[in-house]
Amino acid sequence: MKIEKLIVTGLGTGYSPVAPGTAGAILGIFLLYFLNKLLAMLHIAKSLEYLFYLSAIILITLAGVYAIKRVHKIWPHDDNKIVIDEIAGVWITACCLPLNWQYYLWALILFRFFDIIKPLGIKKFDQMHNDWSVMLDDLLAGLYGFIVLQGLIHFNII
After folding, report:
1. Mean of the pLDDT values across residues 47-68?
2. By the 8 A CB rule, do 27 and 87 touch?
3. Rounded to whole angstroms, how far apart are CA atoms 145 and 108?
4. What is the pLDDT of residue 126?
5. What is the C-alpha separation between 71 and 79, in angstroms, rounded?
6. Whole-angstrom distance, CA of residue 76 vs CA of residue 72
7. Could you state, in order of their start, the residue ranges of all structural domains in the chain?
8. How far lies 102's CA from each of 2, 61, 72, 74, in Å?
9. In whole angstroms, what is the distance from residue 145 CA to residue 81 CA?
10. pTM value?
């Protein structure tokens, strides 16, 4: 169960005594930013880059659901220590961004806004009590953050 706990707590950020979800999302943003830096240094084609993002989000989601299912045997449903969902969600918001730290900061802010406020159907997923629902509300928050962020960038608002 050690590996599962490491996964669901976002390498331990879920044990943060203050705002563990935000701590996990911050870890997610840093990981994605540095992965993007690595991809840029390797001069990966954009089409392969997009495939990489999609694969990474699917992989982290599936690994997260599996690990959540395992820790739900000993922890309450959607325990505060579980932050893998925040990492996956913020990766969706920050997917395919250029290497501009301000964009990543905005991705973090927008994701956390939608994750905390839970508008437009997010709350319905949050109220379900199964292993997938822990992830789905954050994935939807990530999608809403992505749409808003891309609009802000497209219209040169940020």
Report:
1. 94
2. yes
3. 9
4. 82
5. 9
6. 6
7. 2-154
8. 35, 26, 36, 39
9. 23
10. 0.95
